[in-house]
């Protein structure tokens, strides 16, 4: 058989490590998700559709829009009962991560995402409060030729997603916008979702060096039901069923959020680049958790901040040096209330009324030094001051006001050596920290105030890796790492809503990413993650020793593979598979959740008529109708760990571009 001449892979430049550079010369594990892997024929339900292809990244909770997608990198973030922990998230340089370390992904517009860079591993030396890594998301700019695009998708379980997007350039102005609505009845009872999102981005170029970008996002989620977790027997009886308390209490959340951000860039300041950003976010939130007790939560949040950095390059003799220095200050203010609810859903009283304030201030610096033509040395450091304060306004139960402050110094260094023009090896070591969130600070028994015994967790990461190209059509990335963590923040076995510090844990892992092109149209890609994450010294408050046990909620093996055929005319056919080994549901490792394998496929065609085009596409998820769990609620009460996922399900859509 004669093969067509293979497509030549282009070098990839990354910016998430703060200084722009070729990905092969970066002494870190960094992955990039390209536009076609984000957009082509996707259902557009959650961000995991794009991130499954990144080694070292594991996601759960795809189908629960009250708890939202849970993302972990190298095991950090898996304990989060909702949202994202231990990972810094940015969209167009604006943080989605609060000063207390918690991130939400519900306001990220999948229709606008153009590129995702993922730093795998502790990143506090550059980004502060992050033991797991960084998600750096870039949204679309407007193309030179203005366009308008309409898109609609419908699928199983009454899934509907409709939207419009467009953009273009006009003189010094560049603009892009997206607006859409999602509605989904859900596979399970009590899992209905209704959500609307708008994202706008406008850039004004003062000249070829200076620009000001304005970004605005608005989220409205009036319905986000929570079906809760089930026991094994309840799953056997009815996979579509919901927790009885979740139904009785109408568990779920309601969210409104608006964000405005400004990013100024000047690429001609004393030969270097100056960047400044500022933003303001307002979020209103109400959540009924799927159990009686102190389970009704309300808050109004103001989140704002600013950042400034400067990067340049110079030569020290014959040694080239590139550097960046910067400062960031972010603050959140939550007016938070909590209420008791009886099994009939009646409010029985208020247990929390407080102003929560967290301020994070940090300054950082990094230098990339070219020791030889082949050998680069990177060194980075950061100092952070994080302060938490609670002002208790509840008239009953005594004054629980107080404050906690942490000063953290983080450092990292690494070497990258160019073996051959297309291959590089690297080694790096770095420290990181992760503070408790306000949610994790909650004392036993509910109510307000701090748990005075809870401390930040601190980690030391060491890794070696090799990455590069095999010929012109194969890209690879291999990393082996070890992370030692002390004071790991974990759920208490007897109460998943209370957190404590484990003594120590360690993480050993291997991550392999591969992409291979056969001819101009066919590509094969894959990601394999091997993880051995264990407590090395952990005894809980009841005296139970969990030392030697695996960290719950995380598989030892995760394998992703994809075969994609893309025609020059825009047509495509893609098949992907995800295989995940078993996980443990609790610290004791006495509840074993079996692994699973999924196959998904999607195909699309594009018809062009002058400057307009129409794309039709169809996708089939879980082709072989496997029973599996989309989420495991770690250390859940009453062994209600399980959230069943849909069986075989289909969606289809059309996109018209003018």
TrEMBL record:
It is found in: Cell outer membrane. Residues 24-134 form the TonB-dependent receptor plug domain. GO terms for molecular function: siderophore uptake transmembrane transporter activity. GO terms for cellular component: cell outer membrane. Its main location: membrane. Residues 207-622 form the TonB-dependent receptor-like beta-barrel domain. A motif (TonB C-terminal box) lies at residues 641-658. It is a multi-pass membrane protein. Signal peptide: none annotated. It holds the Pfam family TonB_dep_Rec_b-barrel. Keywords: Cell outer membrane, Ion transport, Iron, Iron transport, Membrane, Receptor, Signal, TonB box, Transmembrane, Transmembrane beta strand, Transport. Belongs to the TonB-dependent receptor family. PANTHER family: FERRICHROME IRON RECEPTOR-RELATED (PTHR32552), FERRICHROME OUTER MEMBRANE TRANSPORTER_PHAGE RECEPTOR (PTHR32552:SF68). This is Iron complex outermembrane receptor protein. It comes from Natronocella acetinitrilica.
